[in-house]
Specification:
Elements lengths: L8 E8 L5 E8 L5 E6 L10 H9 L2 E6 L21 H14 L6 E6 L1 H6 L10 E5 L11 H22 L15 H10 L15 H5 L6 E6 L7 H8 L7 E6 L19 H20 L1
Parallel strand pairs: 3-4, 3-5, 5-6, 6-7, 7-8
Antiparallel strand pairs: 1-2, 2-4
Length: 294
């Protein structure tokens, strides 16, 4: 970790989504705050997974907010059976509320995404409030972008295990597969459909206008993907991130030969990835410096 070893104070808070749904969030207080940071997590990943990164960012002066989307972690109901929601509620209602709550009049607001987080940013009604966006492991989700063995595994989940499990449970009991939190039925059905398209939901005829919305984003963006990320290799990233056509954009491809070692789809936020954390926070600091001198 950083030489700054001062303990970070964290505070659990209730964050009302834009429709009033109560979300559980955690605020990591920076001892000497210079910027605000929101972490937009991946599908089925509870906010606690991002704790170490959030603490590290707070040590670096970023007052950091994590949250559990509705239906996930501490924001889920007693049972997911019968729980109705749209997958994109996580962006339109939940993450948008986090942006509204965490922005600060005197400090810039940045966002770090993971997988779905990179999808969510272009859907935010208030993305213009974010001065820089850095996302890890964001891709188009289509099995065709994945290595052959992973294609088989993913297609088995979509075509066999998922339908059987959701018919029996009423939701996707993903935890039984060791793949993350259980997912509401609405998340599963939409995710499955969009992963059938090479460019994800941009090709879904039921979702018109998404490309135009993403083209409105002008926030600087970096998208970092590891070569060993089986779910979101660089080709998958490029297929999706092309939608941010107006944003100043950089693609960062992480070679597994780098000192970080194996990353996969989840390793971006594990302690061994601290060099990536420094790259991210340094980039935000550079953005902040350029704004101050402009």
């Amino acid at each position: 970790m950083s030489a700054n070893t001062r303990a970070i104070l964290s505070e659990a808070i209730t964050l009302p989504a834009l429709d009033g749904y109560p979300l559980t969030a955690t605020l990591y207080h920076a001892p000497q705050p210079r910027a605000q940071l929101v972490i937009a997590g991946a599908t089925g990943v509870p906010q606690g997974f991002y704790r170490r990164f959030a603490e590290y960012a707070a040590q670096r002066g970023f007052s950091t907010l994590t949250l559990d989307y509705r239906g996930i972690g501490q924001s889920k109901p007693d049972t997911l059976r019968g729980f109705k929601m749209d997958y994109l509620d996580w962006a339109h209602l939940d993450l948008a509320a986090a942006v509204d709550q965490h922005r600060h009049a005197q400090r810039p607001l940045y966002m770090v995404g993971h997988s779905f987080g990179g999808h969510a940013f272009g859907l935010l009604p208030n993305h213009d409030q974010v001065q820089g966006f850095y996302t890890f492991g964001t891709g188009a989700g289509w099995h065709g972008w994945m290595p052959k063995a992973e294609q088989l595994r993913v297609l088995t989940m979509w075509r066999l295990i998922g339908p059987l499990m959701t018919r029996y449970k009423g939701y996707l009991a993903w935890s039984k597969l060791g793949m993350g939190e259980d997912l509401p039925l609405g998340v599963y059905t939409q995710w499955k459909r969009w992963c059938g398209y090479p460019r994800y939901f941009f090709e879904d005829p039921q979702m018109p206008g998404l490309a135009e919305r993403f083209a409105q984003v002008s926030t600087p963006i970096v998208a970092a993907n590891a070569l060993d990320d089986l779910w979101a290799p660089p080709a998958s990233r490029d297929a999706f991130m092309a939608a941010y056509s107006r944003a100043p954009y950089q693609a960062r491809t992480i070679d597994c030969a780098e000192p970080i070692g194996a990353i996969g789809h989840m390793g971006y936020f594990r302690p061994a990835a601290q060099p990536l954390w420094d790259e991210t926070l340094n980039w935000f600091a550079e953005l902040q410096g350029s704004r101050q001198t402009a």
